[in-house]
Each structure stands twice: as C-alpha cells, then as structure tokens.
C-alpha cells in the first residue's frame, strides 16, 4: 500500500521540522504547511491520512481550518497548541478535531497518538482494503453499514468523523447498554480513560447534533445521568 501521508501544519517552521523528522523516522511521508490556507491547499492536492494542526496561526488559524475541512473531509485531525485550559480543548473537539495535544509535547506521546489515530482511521474505510459485505445494523430510523462505514438517518447519509463513527458503532451494536465515559474512551481511543468525561461528552453532543437535527426526530442517543450513555430504538 502507498506510504501513509501525514500533513503537519504550524507557523513555526522549527516545530514543523522537528515533528516531520520524528514521523519520518517512523516511516511516514510528511507534508508541510505553515498556515490554515496552505493546509487546505495541501488537502486538495494530496491524499492525506492524518493532520497535525496548530491552533494559533496567521491568515487562517487551526480552528477555522478544522471547520472548513470538516465540511468535506473526515481525515483525522490532531490539534496542537500551547493552550492548556479545558475550554480550549473542548472548543477544538466540538468543531471536529479528533484529539488534542498541548505544547510542549512529549515526542513519544505524539507518536503514540498518531499511531493510534491511524490504526482507527485505516481500519474504518476503504483503506483497509476489505471486500464489501452485507453487514448493516439498524435501530429505528438509524442504519449503520459496517462495510461502507456509513450512517444514515431515515435514509439520508450522515457524515461522521472516524471517532464519531466508532462511538456510534459501539453503541448501536449494543443497544440499550449503558457505557460510562471511561468505557467509551477505552474502547474507541484504545487508551486508558482518566478524567475523559468532557472529551467524550463533546463527541456525544456532536453525534446528537448530526442525527437529531430535526426537533421532531426520535432521540436515539440518550444520556443516563450519573451513569453514561446508550443508544436504543425510540419509543
């Protein structure tokens, strides 16, 4: 298979160079950009499997770029920023980022997160190279094609990020079962879940916004207060 391409975007060229060198040692092909507009151009001309995107940049910042990217692509996005407040992390996740790491970053942690995100992404779509199979989970008006990795609501396709898809797949394949935030995080992110309620909550909110866009739509994804989240057929 063609070598995995990672796009690294930061207005600090030294940071881009350092991350690129780190990832190239792992065997990845690294593309470079220095602001959000350059990142969008790179995505339109290259087949990219993952992005590392700085938040604070000139011309177009990372959050604005993420919003633009999510209008047409589901490529995994790892936000990189010096900001450490939970509110900033939640803002990044809320607009479509898949994960968040702060500067100064631990190189080993960065590589581990990249590998975990790529494992999830490459296992989801056609990149996995699996032959098409008839494998569909339905829950009322929701239909999840596990081969095509496509969710539809009353027949209309819904665009999900890789992380959102894995959450939906977990919950739809286990209807009625309540998962707490730590369980969801460990199953979806494949990492131990400690103090992850906000991260999971943001992704749950994004999913609900996508599948319950009409106020009259049934509520499939439900919060069990104090316990966790579940999906079940609406009454």
Automatic annotation (TrEMBL):
Would I find Chloroplast among this entry's keywords?
no
Q: Where is the OmpR/PhoB-type domain?
A: 134-233
Naming one, the record's GO cellular component terms include: cytosol
Q: Which Gene3D superfamilies match?
A: 3.40.50.2300, 6.10.250.690, Winged helix-like DNA-binding domain superfamily/Winged helix DNA-binding domain (1.10.10.10)
Q: Looking at the record's lineage, which domain of life comes first?
A: Bacteria
Keyword check for Chloroplast: no
- Modified sites of kind 4-aspartylphosphate: 54
* GO BP of this protein: regulation of DNA-templated transcription
From the UniProt annotation, which stretches of this protein bind DNA? 134-233
- Look up the coiled coil feature and give its residue ranges: none
Pfam families documented for this protein = Response_reg, Trans_reg_C
- Please report the stretch or stretches of sequence annotated as the Response regulatory domain: 5-118
| Protein keywords | DNA-binding, Phosphoprotein, Transcription, Transcription regulation, Two-component regulatory system
Entries under InterPro entries matching the protein = CheY-like_superfamily (IPR011006), OmpR/PhoB-type_DNA-bd (IPR001867), Sig_transdc_resp-reg_receiver (IPR001789), WalR-like (IPR039420), WH-like_DNA-bd_sf (IPR036388)
- Sample GO molecular function, one term: transcription cis-regulatory region binding
Q: Which PANTHER family match?
A: REGULATOR OF RPOS, RESPONSE REGULATOR SAER
Q: In UniProt terms, what function does this protein have?
A: May play the central regulatory role in sporulation. It may be an element of the effector pathway responsible for the activation of sporulation genes in response to nutritional stress. Spo0A may act in concert with spo0H (a sigma factor) to control the expression of some genes that are critical to the sporulation process.
Recorded protein name is Stage 0 sporulation protein A homolog
- The organism of origin for this protein: Ruthenibacterium lactatiformans
Q: What is the lineage of its organism?
A: Bacteria, Bacillati, Bacillota, Clostridia, Eubacteriales
């Amino acid at each position: 298979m063609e070598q995995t391409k990672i796009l690294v975007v930061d207005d600090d060229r030294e940071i881009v160079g350092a991350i690129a060198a780190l990832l190239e040692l792992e065997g990845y092909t690294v593309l470079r950009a220095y602001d959000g507009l350059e990142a969008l151009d790179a995505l339109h001309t290259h087949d990219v499997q993952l992005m590392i995107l700085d938040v604070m940049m000139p011309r177009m910042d990372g959050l604005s770029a993420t919003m633009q990217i999510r209008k047409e692509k589901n490529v995994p996005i790892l936000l990189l920023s010096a900001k450490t407040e939970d509110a900033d992390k939640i803002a990044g996740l809320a607009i479509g980022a898949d994960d968040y790491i702060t500067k100064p970053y631990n190189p080993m942690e960065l590589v581990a997160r990249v590998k975990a995100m790529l494992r999830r992404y490459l296992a989801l779509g056609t990149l996995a190279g699996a032959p098409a199979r008839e494998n569909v989970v339905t829950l009322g008006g929701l239909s999840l094609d596990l081969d095509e990795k496509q969710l539809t609501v009353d027949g209309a396709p819904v665009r999900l990020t890789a992380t959102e898809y894995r959450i939906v797949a977990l919950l739809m394949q286990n209807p009625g079962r309540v998962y707490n935030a730590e369980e969801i995080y460990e199953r979806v992110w494949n990492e131990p879940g400690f103090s992850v309620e906000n991260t999971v909550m943001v992704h749950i909110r994004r999913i609900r916004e996508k599948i319950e866009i009409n106020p009259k739509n049934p509520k499939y994804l439900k919060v069990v207060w104090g316990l966790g989240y579940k999906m079940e057929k609406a009454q």
